[in-house]
Description:
Blueprint: H1 9-24, H2 26-33, H3 35-54, H4 67-70, H5 75-94
Helix pairs in contact: 1-2, 2-3, 3-5
Amino acid sequence: MPCSRVRTQLDEDQEAIWAIKARSGSLYVLGFLEPKLLLSLETLFSGIVVGYIQMFNDSKTRLRLSPDSVFKNSPDLKDFHVTVIQRLRDLQYAHKTLSKDSRV
């Protein structure tokens, strides 16, 4: 005879969180449970994106990377660099024209 496990409050809470995740997504749940962690991750990611793009921008103090040279054997990565990363930097972090819920 199988032994039935007694459901605990933790089981019910976990089930409720999984339902919220299925309905609204992981970032919603993370923001709900740990807003400071979500903000820290967003800050870290924005710094990575801006720092990455700075390597390709003209500067008097740094050597500039050329996307044509860096991605010469990988046109798909060059396309990703231009259409996703550079656009994300321009719209979300440098000029803040995207709303919080918009996607690149």
